[in-house]
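Q: Hi! First time asking for a complex rather than a single chain. Here are the components, and I think there are two in total. Is that enough to go on?
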Amino acid sequence: MPKANVTFEKLGVTISVPAGTRLIEISEKVGASITYGCREGECGTCIMKIVSGMEHMSERSVLEDKVLQENMAGSSQRLACQAQVLGGDIVVKA
Amino acid sequence: MNAAPNAVELAPGTHWIGALDPSLREFDIILKTANGTTYNSYCVRGDDGVAIIDTVKASHADEFFSRLEQVARYEEISTIVLNHLEPDHSGALPELMRRAPQARLYISAKAQLMLKALVKTDELQFSVVETGDSVDLGGRTLHFFSTPFLHWPDTQCTLVEEQGILFSGDVFGCHFCDARLFNDKVGDFRFSFEYYYQHIMRPFREHVLEALELLEPLQLKTIAPAHGPILREAPQSYLQRYKQLAAPLLHNEVGTNDKSLLVFYISSYGNTALMAQAVAEGAETEASVRISLYDLQASGGLPFVDLIEEADGIAIGSPTINGDAVKPVWDLLSSLAAIKVRDKLGAAFGSYGWSGEAINMIEDRLRGLKLRVPVKGVRAKLIPNEEELQRCRELGKQLAQHLTGNLERRVISMSELLSQEQANA
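A: Yes, that's all I need. Here is the structure of the assembled complex.
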């Protein structure tokens, strides 16, 4: 199964996960300080910054894109409950 | 002393048109207001138009409109500036815009998000401004300065260049109601000024220092904040005071290159105290980390919050009693919203009798406060054995290594992470 390496920059830890894993699943297990609300891509609470490796992330869905725009998020930001890692090396600010 | 005055002139053509709220005793639930507060709003008249700077709380709108009408007609208003959108300053905005529909609203970029929630319409026309932007009223020029997070994300200050008047929003403000309005006339408001800073601005002290860099070079004759006295006597001294207040409260005894880790604990039978000692011992094996150990049982009135503000990391030990961490721990944790703790290192540990939930609860709170909690806490059933004390030493050592950056980095698999979690459960 393809793997992705997700590095939590502030925690100083890298986790190897199966491709397709959502960031929320990893950040919860690793104990990163990303806070959550609805977990369904609507509230925008879990907006987080991707430091590098955005090309290895799933495309924004229409819903995620709408919520990010409403919250004036930049192009490097994603919703942890929606974004999936697809492979390669990804660094997140958390 | 609080007989409501008419509109009050600050300088030719520039008036205070705000509202007094002398009976208020608590502001926004969290602040005591021993003699109420004011919602300061201002009117600036130029040759080509009139600007209104901020409005008032909705409950005081009548007072505001009555003063506004003493100095301007609604059809003359060309410009409305909101320095931030908090309801006590934007409460009368919808009605003002209804009465002066031709006026253009000027807000910061971040304020756009709040505006929609406030006026409940997408129809409103507004302009977004930032540092360097200005509006010409004819002989009076409004210059905008972005001062984000003081204390709302959207905060800006507005300068009337020709008169040297800075409309500073909540910055340099305080909750003090005195109809004499000016700092050289009102009663002694020093306590209120300091109290306001400590409760409102302190969590944002880095932003305070950034804003001061922007504001200090200005030739200010008057600072006109959104609450409390208008500072026309020695305005620069209030900038200097903010600079002093934004500096660390305690002299830093830790070497500039050293890191500081504070270990707090509270213990019923001495078991969590033993664990705290072991965490400290483990951390001390790492050079360049200064460890301090404090018993929260003696915390009444001690400035632990001041210490934490300056520390790089905190570890908190609590027993679990009735399925919870104990009150002194929550008291400490609930005090931390007054300072910036984001990205500091955090950890928890503790002894327990039956269940041991306190550690997870403390960790969750630390994460909620945006601390980093990279090392899973240690729990010990009743009296910690040597293996458990060794895990505490290891916890301390890893925390210290996180602080110094000497931690060995490795890739952990998801399954390894899950098995670690089960082992700690």
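A: Chain A has a mean pLDDT of 92. Let me know if you'd like any chain examined more closely.
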